[in-house]
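Morning F.,

Quick status update on the modeling queue. The single chain you submitted on Monday has been processed. Sequence for confirmation:
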Amino acid sequence: MMHLDIPTIGDVQRAAVRIRERIHRTPVLTCRTFDELTGACLFFKCENFQKVGAFKFRGACNAIMSLSEDEARLGVVTLSSGNHAAAVSLAARLQGIPAYIAMPETAPESKKRAVEGYGGKITYCANIKALDETALKIQKATKAHFVHPFDDPRVIAGQGTATLELLEDIPGLDIIIAPVSGGGLLSGTCIAAAGVRPGTEFFGAEPSIADDACRSFQAGRLITDNVGSTIADGLRATLSERTLSILKSHVRDIITVTEEEIVRATKIMWQRMKIVVEPSGAVPLAAIIAQPNSFAGKRVGVIVSGGNVDVDHLPWH
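Structure tokens below.
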């Protein structure tokens, strides 16, 4: 196997210092209703309150702020259907450099508007499968530095800073669960928590119609086929060799949930916690509700990944 550059707890801690003045330190919320429903003590790390409305801003900031002047001078390029595109656009603007975004035409309109609002220069392609080719063409034309949404050690380290904050605020957690798409968030979560609280258990959560991470995890090899069009539009990417390697080293299980379970969890978070969460961000709660025996009696950290919802097209209508 090729050498994989895996970030360390030191990388996550340095990222926390590097990006501290740029990001929001997001709150940790609790909800008695969910504790009673699941039999666990749940602590929600609310990255829906992060800048650009998602955890992605942490990784984008760390990656871009880590660039040398020569690397940053020509800007950055990335590919994304939403939150990472917005995160890179804002992080680049704050750094005073251009951001070029390859984005599918099928991306939610609200996320397209967000990218444009943050100053990202969008090149649209027909679908998600064309993203890689489009981003490569942009990079060749601009010589911009490529910032991958998840297969980048600096991005992974940045995402892990959310868990460092969570464990500072709630130091006695037994389990942490996060949604998994490309695996950058869950990878950073594992590295951060394993580094400061050895013995923590980790779970991933993903839609059952886009269960490539679960299948890859069970098979011990990368599987990237049959990713369905889930309502959790932020969870349609597939793992990389790097993120799969990290998850295999740390994660106990990846739980899959149905579209109906995701909608239910999203609705009850809106109703009971009075916060706006996108379906991707509600997938971990859906997983806990679906498999309560894995969490009952435990103190569980839940990473709420984002809150970007098109309010004109709510996901349950």
